[in-house]
Amino acid sequence: MGNNNTATIKKDAPLTPVSDKNGSHVLMCELEWFDERKKYVIANAPERTAKLEFSGSDLNFLARVLYAEASGSAQLPDKAERDKEKAAIMSVNHFRLNRPGYPRNNYIATSFKMVCEAPGQFESVYAKSDKFIGSAKGRVESLGKSECSDLEECIEAIKTFLEKGPDPRYKFDNFRGYMKNGPGTHIGRSRFFLSDSAAEVLKKIP
Amino acid sequence: MKNWLVLTAVLLCPLAFAQVAPFKYNLGTSPVREDAESIVIQTPQPLKIRILPGGHTWPLLNLDEQGNIYAGNKIVTSQQPPKVSSYSDKDGGENTIALAHGYRVDIRDKGYQITQGRITCTLAQRQLGLSGTKSAFDALQDGNIVFRASDQKLLALAARLGADNSDTTYSVFDIDVGRCRTHQANLGNPDLLVELQWSPGGGWWITGSIEQTLLHSKDGRHWYPVVLPKQISSLISAYIVDDREIWLAGILPPDSRDDDPLIIHSTDGGKRWKNIHRGDPVLKRMPVGWLEGWRRLGQPIQQ
Question: Can you tell me the ipTM of this complex?
């Protein structure tokens, strides 16, 4: 429990008798979010994103999107595969920073929130998926144990991304969920794409 | 918090995001101003429409094939000067959506009341393929259901969200308002579907924004993918004029330029596609009913 928590007990609520010394196990999802008062940069970033600073709230928003878009441990039990998938999704997010054309030429994202909130680009944000809504403040505390752990992994993945910089193995500008034999490069349970226009622009501006 | 992550420890102050510079364009005969947060239609009493995360607008904004604007419960005609009318109810019209061809949708507790002339039909969320985990208002605002009217019928594109994005399934419901019945066409999960539209010569189409999907139907019940060049990316909208002419909002390399509106055009039913640059005379025949097209031709407003 955090500080200053207050419990309100209704008059007719069932109470544990004083004689019961076993207590009850209460699960609350508590996470080590990014500090919203601080700013962060990407290590080893290309010139395009080297000067961008990201607020803690921006990175927390990104963590929620990553949680909603990436496979959880229930879908993808192998942690190493989950890490690869998250790194590849982060490559898509990073690719779209400070670049026009996602989806219009006059929309240039300088924060991860802008990347994710661009018109019709990220399914969890566009359609407000249950996972995305469920990770919002006021709801996240009641996530189940494995969902909470999945979200924690996403925060860690972003911290790793900030510390090490973009993973050179992954150069993608789009991704979508699993589809057996579907097009794209399969990493984890997602499919990744690098469009022709993105490949072209990548040569000029990494 | 680990120190290596922390660059500065300054208190955040409100940031003035200027990544979407204000721009202007016309819809029908109405001048419009747009920035990162809103679209303002310059009628005598300006209509302000919020741009929500993901690009949704609220009130919902759409055009018909003649350039008439439908903004929430209001209709702005494309005549000169434009005339504004509105549907009203006990909520003052806040939960009412005006659609083309005389259709109207009122948000109810657990579904939608559809009106065409004197006929009304109320359909629960589940009858329209929605999971019902959200309110009818939220499902509409989040684009989980989209209603579009032609001169003959009303369709709804519904997304039934799954636990994961890959579990989402889409359906198109052909709504017979008179009998208050629907016919469902299952689309599976071909893409993130972001648009349902109709034109008199082109019929119905649905646009998908991640895998560059364009689905086409003449009757709203049978849907077929339009084969698009593999090079196309960032597709988010389309306008099918007829069997030959198609407009796309997307990128087609290699001859794209930095100041392109990112509009692609075909006049042979999709066999050949051309990038349209600013000033191209073909833009004079861009359909008046294509909202995304007009937004892309917007001119920056000098601050």
Answer: 0.90
